[in-house]
Structures are given as C-alpha cells and as structure tokens.
Amino acid sequence: MAPSIDNSRCVLVTGATSGIGRALALAIAALPSHPKVIGVGRRKDRLAGLKDAGIDAEEFDVNADRVKTKNFVEEMIQKYPEIDTLVLAAGVQREVNFKKEVDLDAIATELHVNYFSILAMISFFMPHFMTKSASGQPCLIAPVTSGLAYIPAPWIANYSASKAALHSLCSSLRVQLEDTEIGVIEISPPLVESELHDAEGTTEALSKFWMPLSEYTKETIAGFQRGDSVVCNGMAKNAYEKFEKPKEQMVSEMAKRAATHSK
After folding, report:
1. What angle, 0 to 180 degrees and rounded to 10, lies between the N-to-C axes of helices 117-134 and 66-79?
2. 162-201 burial string, b = 16+ CB within 10 Å, else e?
3. Residue range 156-176, pLDDT digits in tens
4. Which candidate, 85, 87, 256, 263, places its Cα nearest to that of 178?
5. Nearest to 4 by CA among 123, 103, 84, 78
6. Angle at Cα 231 formed by Cα 125 and Cα 124, nearest 5°?
7. Structural domain boundaries in the chain
C-alpha cells in the first residue's frame, strides 16, 4: 500500500509557524480524516495563531544540538504516543559568495537546520515508528527538500547543497524501509511564496516568479493523498522527472545487489 496522508492519525509538522510548513499544517488539519496536527516552531506569537486554528502547538528550535533534539522527540512521543507522521518543513536560506569572505558559522547553521536536524529527528523517532510498523500501523516521513536539490542555484550554493543531501537521504531511506509500514514522501517545492526569502531581501524580486502558496498547498496535499514518492510541482517537477526520476529504480537495484552480495 502506498503511503498516504489520509492514513495518518497524528502528524507532527516542523517549521509550522510560517510559509510552506504552516500552510501544510493547516491543510492537513482540515482533511476529512481529521488527523491531530502538532505544529512545531520557535516563535511564540506564531504558535498562538496555530492554537487558534485548532492545532496543538509546541515550541522548539530545530537549530538545537542533538541532546536537546533527542529530549524533545522523547517528550513528544510521551505526550503524543499516537504520532505516526512527520512533516519536516523547517529551513533557512542564505546567499553565499565565495569571491568574498564566507561566513562559515552561517553556513554551518544552514546545513544543520536544512539537513542534520532533520536526519537527527528521523533517527530519534525511528524506534517509535518501527514499533508501530511492527503492529501493522502505517507511518509516514515527509521531509521538505527543494527543486534546487536537482538543479542548484549558484547564489545560494549551500542551501542547494543541503537540499541535495536531503533528497539523497530520502531516496536511500525509502529503500531501507521498503519492508516496513513506514513510507517516505519527499516534498520538493519550486519557488513558492514564502518568508524564507526575507532574510536576504529578495522577496520583492522573487514574488514576480513564485507559485502562490495557496496553489502550491492544494497541489501538494493532492500528491500527499495519492502517496506519490516525490511530491513536486512546477519547475521542480520538470527537473525531477528529467534528472532524478530515472535514478530511483537504479537506487533500488543497487540496494538489491548489495543485499545479495552480503549473504
């Protein structure tokens, strides 16, 4: 059975206080299946808005070290033992120009938020999901990558690289979990209306080209319900189908050969 958000009973969404994360949290909460939604973010004023929309709100900054992340995950599992779905939408984006002085601290933070924090959260939730899977309950892991994982934007080189790493992780994780009830859906947006670009002052220019958030959310929820392995739209979909989709079968075949040789 293909993984689908319609099977989810309790969905934890990171990055839920703005942009794609918030839009997906609200849309998932409005599904006919009425899953419980837990919105996670670091801004208290925005979390209050989620509560007003009937979403459970939890304060956490994903730019935390692994000990704090582990403690947070354990707290969430204890408080919401029905959690069976992760939508990992938190992210940051910064420009970098290697012809000038590079802020390595900013690059490390961007890489941590966009890649390592997601890897850590998946790792810490995995025993919980494996237990549910063993009982036959479907679970779902849905990281948000980007169309820039397939074709990088040179002016945001580290952001593009972090999303490429996350895309690769999704592909491998999906194959590793093939014999479980844990599905992996990669959410791969094109340029979408978002506050993500405010930090670099590029919002006004990009607003002439981006996909409206409402349109993006509607299309993405539809892909989520179908159980597409990669939910992508617009230019991201074009890039995925041309460059990445042909690789998916190769990844699976490589894993099968490796398993055969290890026996």
Report:
1. 30
2. bbbbbbbbbbebbbebeeebbbbbbbbbbbbbbebbeeee
3. 999 999 999 999 999 999 999
4. 256
5. 84
6. 10
7. 5-262
Rounded (10°) CA dihedral 63, 185, 33, 220: 90
- pTM score, whole prediction: 0.93
Among residues of the chain, what percentage have pLDDT more than 90?
A: 82
Query: The tokens of 221 are what?
Result: 């929820």
Task: Enter the tokens of residue 99.
Answer: 């012809």
**What is the CATH superfamily name and number for domain 5-262?**
NAD(P)-binding Rossmann-like Domain (3.40.50.720)
Task: Please tell me whether residue 35 adopts helix, strand or coil conformation.
Answer: coil
Dist CA 232 CA 210 (whole Å): 14
SS3 17: coil
| pLDDT reading at 1 higher than 70 | no
Q: Measured between alpha carbons, how far is 90 from 188 in angstroms, rounded to an integer?
A: 13
219 Cβ neighbours under 8 A, 6+ residues apart: 233
b (16+ CB within 10 A) / e for 25-46? bbbbbebeeebbbbbbbbeeeb
